[in-house]
Structure formats: structure tokens, C-alpha cells
Amino acid sequence: MTNTTRFERAIVRFTPGLSVDGYKMPDGEFRVGTAGASRLVGFSDNWLSRLTSRGGKTLKALQGMGFTGYQKEGSVARSDVSGASLVNTISLNDFCVLVTYAVQEKKIEAIALNIAFLQIPVTDFFRDAFGEKRLSIEEVRAKFCAAYSQTINWLQEDRYEIEELWLAGDPLEIQNWNSSIRWV
Description:
By secondary structure, this protein is an alpha+beta fold. The protein contains seven helices and six strands. It is 49% helix and 19% strand. The protein has a six-stranded mixed sheet. Helix 4 (92-104) packs across helix 5 (108-129) and helix 5 crosses helix 6.
């Protein structure tokens, strides 16, 4: 029998309805589940697992951005079944690189995440410069939710406006210039 690392699991909630499985290792390191990380940035649940197992240009591009692809597998006790469930995780640094890559791939979820993630520390730096105290976790979540929602809405509105401008005689490549973007 192999010795499997036991993770502590928690749901990391960014906004209502927007969360990812977070894991804490015995040494205190925080990690993100691969399926949730893939889904959160706009890919399928198994995208990251497939990507790291078969390699290719996409993995090389991610590695060029600092992505290690190193996954740690561990077990998590489950209350709904007897025994434990195995999970694959990536580091928080790899998760940040994944968000950046997905932004470059024009994944709407990743664009909104990136903007929301950036607004929090920028706001805190400015608050600090003006002698104000840092945002509380409730203020962070509210600011994150507002930024994420606003970005998603703007991107959807942009698509609708573009589609309204299409003319029947437009070449197909102009009509479908943004077809690779998955809109929610």
C-alpha cells in the first residue's frame, strides 16, 4: 500500500457561485484542485490533466510563462462515502500562470478573474499610501464580486453589439472573428 498525502479541503469562495476546491498540505502549503482550476478559467474539468499528461505546444507555452505542471496527488476524507477520495492539485503559482494563459486565450472567465484579482491589491496599495487601513475580507469579496460581474457583463455586451453590426454580405472570417471566445 502506498503512502498517500492527506490534504485538508476547503471551498475557496470568490463570489457567490464562483469557487474552487482549495487544499492545504500537512506542511501548510495551499494548492488548487486541477479540475476546479481548469473550469474556473473557462476550460473543461479535465483540460489541465490531459494537457500535462500528453504535453504539446500548449504545455510548452505555459512552461515558458513559468508553469511547472507539477501536480501533487493526495487524499481527502469524504463525508458522503466511506474512505477517501484522491485529488490532483497544482500550486498557487501554477494557478496564477494558468489564469494568465487563459486571459491570452481570451477566456472570458479568466479575463474577469484577472481584473478582479488585480483590483484588490491595487486598492490596498493606494489605501496604504493614503494612510487608510487595508480592506477587510468582506470588502475584498464585495469588491471582487463587483469587478468580476462588471467585467463579465461588459464582455457579453461587447459581443452582442458586435453581432448586431454583422451584415449579411460580410465574409465569414469577419462575422466569426470572436467565435473562439466562450461566452457565459
